[in-house]
Design a protein that fits this description.
heterodimer, A: about 375 residues, alpha/beta, six-stranded antiparallel β-barrel, five-stranded parallel beta sheet, 9 helices, globular, B: about 425 residues, three-stranded antiparallel beta sheet, 12 helices, 12 strands
Chain lengths: ~375, ~425
């Protein structure tokens, strides 16, 4: 196969490319330029956007004996990932930009260009597994090393995208193994630190970065019954589950601390309440995608057992899921598909905008963007 | 198949011989003993050969580590010495199509040394406006430190009328630097006839090795040094002289100048075949830079309007880097023309200055011919190009919205 290896400059993508070469594929390395003004040297735990990272990727390709190019996707990245990230926050949601980058950049803009230029697949250093059945239909599965598993951030990939995806690190027992392999292969990035932070936020201060880009307007803080109990400097400055910084002055009637339950940017309201209401029992998801062919229960509109995960390294929770067709003025045809998930045990730290990825065993069924998440003890309609 | 001679050229046989022979010997040309004298002999012979090739006096050759250092020395050195002599002189007249060695130096002086940069307009072919120079000088001659305009552009190959520009600047007493890195060895460049004050040349663009170049500095020109040290090279450029590099540079220069009339005619013919072929195969392609009406069209005392080895096009609807990739795959080595040492390909500042949009500029591809180029090479390119262009066009522009349907497609937030 002709394989395009997306090279961030890190150890994972370098080893993934090396394995693709070793498997006999015709591999070309490409580094994505995602910033118009890249920094010179890597700082802190940012992953992939400096010239040093580009040089590291280049050096790895030279060692592997494969061509290397830098392709500029800075404009697409800004529109599809950075601007989307800001817009989602401004709308009171909490998006995952890495997931969005996989969805729109690596496995859309890059993949499309790669296919047009004659490649068959895009290869990355993600820890996840694609299994193809006898009919050539792909399934996405967790990586062998659950600690490093990145199937969550790939959960957004569709059947078509997965058909052209290659994740050579799927079966790797651990990250240490990857580093050792890099060392053996003479790849200089063997001991390069892992990246954690959002690559386009230089100092890792997401909140500060967002506050420079989103207008904040003073508004009401209300309790779970809708009664005004304070004011806030701007609803977008808060996150669900937040306790500190509410500055309410007086304690709740039961004397217990209050937490942010919900952010309502349209009404510029922050809803607070007792901790127990943060326990989410049910979530509704929109913008649904299936990682491969959907299971039969989807079309049949019947219930199915699954595990749900709402962040990259969060623990999955057992649940029952089903599809509902909901009347919606915004949707085409007036009907919107929603994925409803009822959790067997409550989950904390869920905010609209996050993706819920649903699994069966190791298999990723698909994902949806969380539109609402609630405790069954509280009806958000009480706040109007 | 190498069509990127503007980036660097293969080492010529005589340069290789001079280089290897000198590398096996030792001696610091500044030493007074036998080894030093031997090395000094080589350096001074080389200096004379280069002076003959560049049309200057041997003492006007200041050896440097390459074109970039020569440009830095000229622009900073002229700026500082002119400003020190009269603090009002802080204006730098600069063409917007300069190589980064000049462009970034000028911008550095603006940021750190109080310079005011006046960007001279160029027309759609990349020719600097002499009227704009005249108007600027007429208004601000007293406060102008220097004028810098490259002899021939490295991307689109446009040749400026350096003698005329220099005469104009000298009317107002303003010194002129020209970056002749692309012109030297390809065009009949003559320092004295052009009248410029400083001129940068480089070894590896003419069949010499990388790491050696020179700044030609007129005898009357005062330059503030950038490199301080042992006082070599008229105290303008300190540092032990690189005897092997200098010997090889001189050998390459001698060869290039001796062959220049025949070689430039040969390259011009190949280039015109290439241009005609590209325009025939791909009618959408747009030649950038100056078009010569007929082979060898010259209107300025034997100076052509375009570098004989340069063919530069923009290909609408595709990214230059897609074309580069596909041509590389087909065994043709070309360039998008603009340096991307930062790893991030940006639309060329040269093309933008010539009035192209960012989108147009992104489809750039430069084919630069040199002493190893044959007509078979041109045929190979013309065979590979149409297929590569079709495919690159299919890949489209990186800025376009992907047509691949994904989870978030069709939703608005």
């Amino acid at each position: 196969m002709k394989v395009l290896a997306a090279m961030s400059g890190g150890v994972d993508s370098a080893v993934a490319a090396a394995r693709a070469v070793e498997a006999g594929h015709d591999v070309v390395g490409v580094h994505l330029a995602l910033s118009r003004m890249p920094g010179t040297l890597r700082t802190g735990s940012r992953g992939c956007c400096t010239i040093e990272d580009s040089r590291d990727a280049w050096r790895a390709c030279d060692i592997l004996g494969i061509p290397y190019y830098v392709w500029d996707f800075s404009e697409r990245f800004k529109e599809d990932v950075v601007d989307d990230f800001i817009a989602e926050y401004a709308a009171g949601r909490t998006p995952n930009p890495c997931m969005r980058c996989n969805e729109r950049i690596k496995f859309a803009a890059l993949l499309e260009k790669a296919l047009a230029l004659g490649f068959d697949a895009v290869c990355t250093g993600h820890y996840a597994k694609v299994i193809t059945d006898a009919d050539g239909n792909p399934e996405l599965h967790r990586a062998a090393d659950w600690a490093k598993d990145q199937s969550y951030v790939l959960g957004v990939l569709t059947h078509e995208q997965l058909k052209h995806s290659m994740f050579p690190l799927a079966e790797t027992p651990s990250k240490a193994e990857v580093r050792a392999e890099a060392e053996r292969r003479g790849l200089s990035v063997a001991n390069k630190p892992d990246s954690h932070d959002i690559c386009f936020i230089p100092d890792g201060d997401t909140r500060g970065w967002l506050e420079e880009r989103i207008d904040l307007t003073e508004g009401d803080i209300v309790d779970s019954s809708g009664e005004k109990i304070g004011t806030h400097p701007g609803a977008n400055a808060f996150t669900v589950g937040q306790r500190k910084g509410l500055k309410l002055g007086r304690p709740a009637d039961d004397g217990k601390p209050r937490f942010v339950l919900e952010i309502r940017p349209k009404e510029n309201k922050v809803v607070v309440g007792p901790e127990k209401l943060l326990n989410i029992d049910q979530m509704r998801g929109i913008k649904i995608s299936w990682a491969g062919l959907p299971i039969p229960e989807i079309a049949a509109r019947t219930q199915f057992d699954c595990m749900v995960q709402v962040r990259a390294h969060g623990d999955p929770v057992a649940a029952r899921g089903w599809m509902e067709d909901v009347a919606s003025e915004e949707a085409e045809g007036g009907i919107r598909e929603e994925l409803v998930v009822r959790l067997n045990e409550p989950m904390r730290g869920v905010a609209p905008g996050q993706s819920m990825v649903v699994y069966q065993g190791t298999r990723v069924l698909g994902q949806a963007t969380i539109d609402s998440a609630r405790s069954l003890e509280w009806d958000p309609a009480a706040v109007s | 198949m190498y069509l990127d001679h503007a980036a660097t050229t293969p080492l010529s046989a005589s340069a290789l011989a001079a280089l290897t022979s000198e590398l096996s010997r030792s001696g610091n040309p500044s030493s007074l003993h036998g080894s030093g004298r031997r090395a000094r002999m080589v350096v001074e012979d080389s200096r004379e050969a280069l002076a003959a090739a560049a049309g200057c006096h041997p003492s006007e050759i200041i050896f440097t580590s390459g074109g970039t250092e020569a440009d830095n020395l000229a622009v900073k050195g002229l700026y500082w010495s002119r400003r020190d002599a009269d603090p009002r002189r802080t204006r730098i007249l600069c063409s917007p199509i300069e190589h980064h060695a000049v462009l970034d130096t000028v911008q550095w002086l603006e940021k750190h040394e109080g310079a005011t940069v006046v960007w001279l307009p160029v027309d759609h072919e990349g020719v600097v406006s002499e009227e704009a120079i005249r108007a600027e000088l007429a208004a601000h001659a007293d406060s102008t430190a220097l004028l810098t305009v490259m002899w021939a552009n490295n991307e689109v190959g446009t040749v400026q009328d350096i003698p005329a520009i220099t005469a104009l600047a000298h009317e107002y007493g303003v010194p002129v630097h020209t970056d002749a890195v692309q012109a030297f060895g390809s065009l009949p460049v003559n320092f004295r006839a052009a009248g410029v004050d400083t001129m940068a040349i480089s070894g590896h663009k003419i069949g010499g090795p990388v790491g050696v170049g020179a700044l030609v500095v007129g005898r009357a020109v005062k330059l503030t040094p950038v490199m301080h040290g042992g006082g070599q090279e008229r105290d303008i450029r300190s540092g032990t002289l690189d005897t092997p590099g200098i010997a090889a540079f001189a050998a390459a220069a001698r060869e290039a100048t001796e062959n220049l009339p025949a070689e430039s005619a040969r390259l011009r013919q190949l280039r015109d075949t290439l241009i005609a072929g590209v325009e025939r195969e791909i009618p959408d392609a747009v030649l950038r830079g100056a078009r010569e009406e007929q082979s060898g069209d010259t209107d300025r005392q034997g100076m052509p309007r375009r570098l004989p080895g340069n063919a530069h096009f923009t290909f609408p609807g595709c990214e230059g880097d897609s074309l580069l990739f596909l041509l590389d795959l087909a065994g043709v080595e070309s360039s998008t023309g603009s340096a991307c040492t930062a790893g991030v390909p940006r639309p060329s500042h040269v093309l933008l200055a010539m009035g192209l949009s960012e989108t147009e500029a992104r489809g750039a591809q430069r084919f630069s011919l040199g002493h190893t180029t044959t007509s078979a090479d041109v045929d190979t390119l013309l065979n590979a190009l149409p297929g590569a262009y079709e495919r690159a066009k299919k890949a489209g522009m990186a800025s376009h919205v992907s047509s691949i349907q994904t989870a978030g497609t069709g939703f608005t937030s």
